[in-house]
Amino acid sequence: MTQPQTSPLPLPMEPDHLPNLGWDFEIEVFSRAHFKFGLPGFEHLSQFVIASVKDFPPFHILISKAEPEVNLLIINTQLLSIYQTIDIPVMEFKKIGTSNREDVDSYVVVKVNAEKNTLTVNLRAPILIHKNTLSAYQAILDRRDLSIEYPLIPA
Predict the structure, then answer these.
(1) Residue 42 carries which DSSP code?
(2) Which of 1, 123, 138, 151 is the most buried (most CB within 10 A)?
(3) Does any domain span residue 46?
(4) Is 28 exposed, middle or buried (0-12, 13-18, 19+ CB in 10 A)?
(5) pLDDT digit string, tens, across residues 86-100
(6) Domain with 38 in it: what CATH number?
(7) Could you tell me the pTM of the whole model?
């Protein structure tokens, strides 16, 4: 899996400055993202770090710098074969300063359902991060054919 390229600028939050959020797993900050318009539901938050989950390598956590309790489990879309078939309109990439899909790392939010013991992702709302500028945007695709609960592991 390809990690997003990091900027030569220092990370806004060093790993040792992450508050203890009560997790029983280790994380390591490897990148950051700036959401000019925030995330849907969290429009007031713009600065995030991306941390890898050490014991669960395909997963990352998007953590708000200002409010670390606002965090989302995410996975790089390169790991989802179906994602390569999804056409994201160029206008979505332009919102982070590019028209080229190759300039962008994309992630989807992972939903954990402990009752059903399932992991699903929302294919309609990819998080797009420009590899060089780290400008980020969560696109909301108006596509009813894309699942908002796509299973990561078939049942």
Answers:
(1) B
(2) 138
(3) yes
(4) exposed
(5) 889 999 999 999 999
(6) 2.30.290.10
(7) 0.83
Within-domain flag for 119: yes
Alpha-helical (H) ranges within 19-151 are 90-94
Q: Model confidence over 13-49: pLDDT tens digits?
A: 454 466 666 677 888 899 999 999 999 999 999 999 9
Q: In this structure, what token pair is assigned to residue 1? A: 């899996």
Q: Residue 39 contacts by C-beta under 8 Å, 6 or more apart in sequence?
A: 45, 127, 138
3 is a domain residue: no
Q: How many CB atoms lie within 10 A of CB 119?
A: 17
Judge contact between 4 and 11, C-beta under 8 A: no
In this structure, the number of other CB atoms found within 10 A of the CB of residue 54 comes to: 10
Position 8 in a domain: no
Q: Which residue type, as a one-letter code, is found at position 112?
A: V
**Domain tally, the chain:** 1
